[in-house]
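sry for the spam today, last one i promise. struct tokens for design, 133 residues
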């Protein structure tokens, strides 16, 4: 039964962090502090978002520690590990979704697989010198 209470404490702390940071995001978007959904955020907005998410995370870890049946610090640290793992998963997902198709990164550099017009846009000639010269 203690394991279930421990798991519930960590889950409620995580839920608090998720709900509170999402609610603040929605309010700041509605207030016009953040740009509309889907647009790029300026650096100042990202600093603001990081700041209030840190405070939400601290409050969520405090809640998990208060609800813990024993060893509150371990529960707060467990929630921190869950949060780091979840954010790492999100970062990995973003990297996978935005990764260029195989060969595109070489085409951007003017290497193999490019159609040639990439070199023209960067001011380099579109013709490779011959090796016979």
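last one done:
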């Amino acid at each position: 039964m203690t394991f279930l209470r421990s798991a519930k404490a960590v889950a409620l702390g995580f839920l608090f962090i998720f709900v509170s940071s999402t609610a603040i995001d929605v309010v700041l978007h509605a207030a016009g502090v953040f740009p509309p959904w889907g647009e790029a955020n300026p650096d100042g907005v990202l600093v603001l978002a990081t700041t209030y998410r840190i405070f939400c995370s601290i409050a969520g870890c405090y809640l998990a520690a208060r609800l813990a049946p024993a060893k509150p610090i371990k529960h707060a640290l467990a929630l921190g590990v869950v949060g780091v793992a979840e954010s790492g998963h999100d970062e990995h997902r973003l990297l996978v979704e935005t990764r260029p198709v195989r060969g595109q990164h070489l085409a951007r550099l003017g290497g193999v697989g490019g159609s040639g017009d990439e070199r023209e846009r960067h001011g380099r000639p579109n013709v490779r010198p011959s090796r016979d010269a």
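The two ends are 82 Å apart (CA to CA). ok im logging off now
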